[in-house]
């Protein structure tokens, strides 16, 4: 069977994610760690997929997140640091084209992702430590980010709902 977005959605039982794309939880550590927001699993992991035309909108987590490329099109992970510095990192396997098979998004960064080229899907894994909790998740509006970072208005318009 040809692997495509429908295949992965069915096989991994992916559901819509508020930031865009779809996801399925794959693991949560049994051990916990105390954080200022309360106890969290030591780490959590998900499968995350963008289908053609989707983006992962700009959002922020209170934990570090490692992204791992799995299949399909390569992604660009767009980041804005706390001091307003924009960067774009390619997640994929074509290292000669500057892609990396895994990347880190540090806690507190504002970030989102988009496919580098039009394609049926991009499938990745994301591991968050301390573990993900929706209480630690913030999705941004275009207005909020343009007000804070007017120098990045073009990418903000692309990466916000």
UniProtKB/TrEMBL annotation:
InterPro entries hit by this protein: Cupin_DUF985, RmlC-like_jellyroll, RmlC_Cupin_sf, YML079W-like
Listed Pfam families: Cupin_5
Domain DUF985: 7-139
CDD domains: cupin_YML079wp (cd06121)
Domain of life of the native organism: Bacteria
Full protein name: Cupin domain-containing protein
Organism annotation: Sporosarcina jeotgali
């Amino acid at each position: 069977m040809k692997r495509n977005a429908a295949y992965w959605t069915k096989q991994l039982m992916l559901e819509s994610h508020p930031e865009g794309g779809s996801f399925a939880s794959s693991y949560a550590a049994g051990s916990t760690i105390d954080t200022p927001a309360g106890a969290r699993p030591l780490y959590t992991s998900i499968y995350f997929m963008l289908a053609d035309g989707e983006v992962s909108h700009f959002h922020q987590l209170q934990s570090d997140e490692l992204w791992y490329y799995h299949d399909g099109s390569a992604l660009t992970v767009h980041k804005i640091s706390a001091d307003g510095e924009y960067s774009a990192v390619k997640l994929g396997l074509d290292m000669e084209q500057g892609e990396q098979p895994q990347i880190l998004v540090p806690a507190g960064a504002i970030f989102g992702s988009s496919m580098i080229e039009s394609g049926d899907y991009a499938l990745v894994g994301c591991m968050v430590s301390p573990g993900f909790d929706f209480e630690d998740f913030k999705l941004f509006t275009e207005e909020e980010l343009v007000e804070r970072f007017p120098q990045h208005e073009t990418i903000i318009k692309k990466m916000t709902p």
